[in-house]
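TL;DR need structure tokens for one chain.
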Amino acid sequence: MTMLSSVQQKLRQSRYLRDVAWQMSGNSFAQALGILAMPLLTRLYAPADFATLNLFMQVVAGLTILLTWRFEYLVMLPKDDGQAHAILRTIAWFGAATAALTTLAALLVGDDLAALLGDAALAPWLALAPMTAWLLCLSIGLQQAVQRRQDFRNAGFSEVLGKGGYVVSALAGAPWLPQIGGLMASAAVGAGAKSLWLWRTLRTGLGSRPNQGQVHVNGAIRPYARLAGSMSFSNLLSIITSAVPMIFIVKAYGANTLGQFGLVISTLYLPSGLLGNAIGQVYFQRAAQRRSHGDAFDDLWRTTAWQLARIGVPLYTLIALLSPWAYPFFFGDQWQPAGQYAMVMAAAAGLSFITSPLDRTCLVVNAWWYAPLWHGARAVTTVGLAWVAWNWQWSFEHYLLAMVVQMVLLYLIDWLAGWRFARPKDRSHE
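>> reply
TL;DR here they are.
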């Protein structure tokens, strides 16, 4: 029996694969809802509407940093449950207060920000961004708290409710709300539905643990302040990485091209939301648990990486071959360019499927310096690529191909770094 087979057998005897199955089943139903609704949404809303939504979500992503400083991703790390729930309370109350203040700011500067981003249609919806950001942060924190208890069944079901809220808002809003209100509110409605279910689940399980809420908030967050700062800065760089191509595309190639690109991004990464995210969440919980008890987790990393590669390579090869036909067939003839773009981007999306579920390894070993370094390199190369494409007047197809090459190289670097961090001799970054 090979070492890998021995490791796989050991994992099957534990709850690891069962927890992946629970999380994946929830993600599967959630993504099925999204896939079934997408052909309807692409006929109810124009490519320019999705371009506005994509820019709106970039603003939301930026606000999540301001509201909670990314502490919602650290709920999994404390060994003590009381400390974890103190962090969760900070996310809820501090985030809500900051969201209220930033809503007032959005009402004052919304028109100017929309003009800066290159889409005047965005202006009326920016006041909704802070509440959307807070609900997203809260849903992540609550999900991590539920997953700490290894309750992946309810964590998975929350994904279904979240996607269901998104779909209902977008579909019902088309006939009943003005302009694209349903589409713009969909992220907030989905995150709100997910948060309510997780809060109910968590509250139900706290009755037998009356002392876990007694930890002082300041004492709970101080040990993770440096890691939270690192994540906040990394997320800021990640937002730059995501926003720069969108702003560049809408200014250089128009809103229609951005809408086509946005559909590709939202659909091509569906397998990551379906399976990769489920594996990544369970991997993070198990790796953090082992680390907190002083145990190694390199075998867990190896087996997870191998399974992701076995699934991702054939899956995205098939997606690349079918995309030029599938996009216009499912979404309508107006989305034919999206099928061509998806064929090119399949290589980057496939590598993201393989590497992204493992990208929290640096958090597990408290390598706080790595994420800013990697995201900094990605942000600099993204800005540089847009600058070159603008000055040399590249076609969109040329720019897209160069962006895929850039992403593939960076994902490979991230995968190799995760492998190094997971090795026992490298787990000393406290």
